[in-house]
Write a structure and sequence with these properties.
Layout lengths: L11 E2 L10 H7 L1 H4 L10 H20 L7 E4 L2 H15 L6 E5 L4 H12 L3 E5 L9 H7 L4 E5 L13 H18 L5 E5 L10 H4 L3 E5 L10 E5 L25 H16 L1 H22 L4 E2 L13 E5 L5 H10 L2 E2 L15 H5 L4 H4 L2 E5 L6 H24 L1
Parallel strand pairs: 1-11, 3-4, 3-5, 5-6, 6-7
Antiparallel strand pairs: 2-8, 7-8, 9-10, 10-12
Helix pairs in contact: 1-9, 3-9, 4-5, 6-7, 10-14, 11-14
C-alpha cells in the first residue's frame, strides 16, 4: 500500500512554525541508522557499540553548537517532552516542598499546561503579562521573584506572534540575584527557556545564561519527534520517564539514533548559516508583509513591527478585517497556499488564542487571525503569489459575508 498525498496545482508552504520540511542533508544523515547501524546503544556487541559511538558523536556535535558540555545534552522526542521534563523534573526535585514558579501568559501549551497542573498540586505560579507587542522585561521578572521562587520559564520566541524575549538580560538578572541568595542561604532560582521557535537565533547557553533549554528538531528542518533538553551541570531533575536509565537517567528508553543524527545535522545547518539565513528570510518577510498591508485595507500586524529586531525573521501574524482566519485558511489552501491560524498544537481546540488575548486583542477579533511563517526554502515568487492571491480571496470572503 502506498500513500498518495494531494497535489495542488501550485504549492507554497508557509506554516513553518508548525512544521518544517526535512533538510536533505539531515535526511541523508539519518539513513545509515535505519538498517546498517541499527543496534541498541545500550548493547555491548559491535552493533550496539557502533550505535553508542554515533550517539555520543552527535551529542558532542550538538553540545558544541549550543556552547554546552556533552553530558549536559539530553536527547528527547521533541519540544513538548523537553518542556515537561524541565518543569515537572524541577518541581519533582523539590520533594514535598511547594515552590513558586514564574512564567509568561503567552507560553506554548507545553509549558502552560504543566504549570496549571503544578498549581492544582499546591505550587504557586506567577504569569507575567506582555505588552501589546508580546514582550516582557527583565524588570517584570525581577519584581515577581520571591524567597521561595524555584524556577523561571520564559520562551525565547513566541510561536504565534514571533516576539523575541530578552532571555540573555533575564539570565544576567538571575545570575546576580542568585549570587545574593547564596549569601543569604537561599536556594538557587533556575532558568528555563523554550527555544523551539528560536533555531535561527543565538542558542549559546553561555550567552543566554540559562540552566535549562528546550530545542525541537521538527521546527528547524529536522525530523519530527526529535529534540533536546539542555540541563546545566548541577541542575537536579526528577526523571519523568522511568526504565533503563538512558540519557543520564533523565530520559529512559532506547535512544532513536536516526532521529538524533537528523536533528544534529539540521541544528548544525541552521546555526552555522543562521546570519545569512536570517537576512534572506527577513527580507522576504518584510516584502510580503508590506505588500499585504498595502493591498488589504484594515489589515493589522500583530506582535513587534517589521522593523523591530525583536520579531522572528520568518513570522507574520495578522488580524484580517471581517474574515475569520479558518475561512481564509481554507480558501488559501484551495489555492495551494499553506498557512495557519495560530499554534498547530492548539488547532483542534475551540478556545481563542491565549497569546492574542494576552496582548489585548478582543475576543471578537481573535478568530480573524492568520499566521504566515516562512522558511529557508521560501522564494520571492512564492511571496509574490501570496500577495496576489490573498487580497483577492479576502475580498471574495468579505463579499459573501456582506451578502448574507
Amino acid at each position: 500500500m502506498k500513500f498518495q498525498p494531494a497535489k495542488p496545482k501550485r504549492s507554497v508552504y508557509l506554516d513553518n512554525a508548525g512544521a518544517t520540511p526535512m533538510d536533505p542533508e539531515a535526511e541523508a544523515a539519518m539513513r545509515p541508522f535505519f538498517a546498517r547501524v541499527f543496534g541498541n546503544p545500550s548493547s555491548l556487541h559491535t552493533q550496539g557499540r557502533n550505535a553508542k559511538q554515533a550517539l555520543e558523536f552527535f551529542r558532542k556535535s550538538v553540545a558544541g553548537l549550543i556552547s554546552a558540555l556533552p553530558e549536559e545534552v539530553v536527547f528527547t522526542a521533541g519540544g513538548t517532552e523537553s518542556c515537561n521534563l524541565a518543569i515537572f523534573g524541577l518541581a519533582g526535585a523539590l520533594g514535598k516542598k511547594k515552590g513558586h514558579f514564574i512564567t509568561t501568559a503567552i507560553e506554548h501549551p507545553a509549558v502552560l499546561e504543566p504549570f496549571l497542573r503544578l498549581e492544582k498540586s499546591g505550587h504557586k505560579v506567577t504569569y507575567l503579562m506582555p505588552n501589546k507587542e508580546g514582550l516582557i522585561t527583565a524588570g517584570q521578572v525581577g519584581k515577581a521573584l520571591r524567597a521561595d521562587t524555584a524556577l523561571v520559564s520564559v520562551m525565547y520566541a513566541n510561536n504565534e506572534i514571533g516576539s523575541i524575549q530578552p532571555i540573555a538580560e533575564i539570565g544576567r538578572l538571575l545570575y546576580k540575584v542568585n549570587v545574593e541568595r547564596q549569601k543569604k542561604g537561599l536556594s538557587k532560582i533556575f532558568f528555563h527557556t523554550d527555544a523551539c521557535q528560536a533555531g535561527m537565533l543565538d542558542l549559546s547557553v553561555k550567552n543566554l545564561g540559562v540552566d535549562l533549554m528546550t530545542v525541537n528538531g521538527g521546527k528547524i528542518h529536522g525530523p519530527k519527534q526529535s529534540g533536546l533538553l539542555y540541563v546545566k551541570n548541577g541542575t537536579r531533575l526528577l526523571p519523568q520517564i522511568l526504565g533503563g536509565g538512558q540519557e543520564r537517567g533523565l530520559r529512559s528508553g532506547t535512544e532513536n539514533v536516526a532521529a538524533v543524527a537528523g536533528f544534529a545535522k539540521a541544528l548544525q545547518q541552521v546555526q552555522v548559516k543562521r546570519q545569512g539565513m536570517c537576512k534572506n528570510i527577513t527580507s522576504l518577510r518584510d516584502y510580503l508583509g508590506k505588500l499585504l498591508l498595502k493591498k488589504i485595507p484594515g489589515l493589522v500586524l500583530n506582535g513587534p513591527g517589521l522593523d523591530s529586531p525583536l520579531r522572528l525573521p520568518n513570522n507574520l501574524n495578522f488580524t484580517v478585517p471581517k474574515v475569520e482566519g479558518e475561512s481564509l485558511l481554507i480558501y488559501l489552501d484551495a489555492a495551494g497556499i499553506s498557512v495557519s491560524t495560530g499554534s498547530a498544537c492548539s488547532t483542534n481546540s475551540s478556545k481563542p488564542s491565549h497569546v492574542l488575548k494576552a496582548i489585548g486583542i478582543s475576543e471578537g477579533l481573535i478568530r480573524n487571525n492568520i499566521r504566515i511563517t516562512l522558511n529557508k526554502n521560501t522564494k520571492r515568487q512564492d511571496v509574490e503569489y501570496v500577495s496576489q492571491v490573498m487580497p483577492e480571496l479576502i475580498k471574495q470572503i468579505q463579499k459573501v459575508r456582506n451578502e448574507l
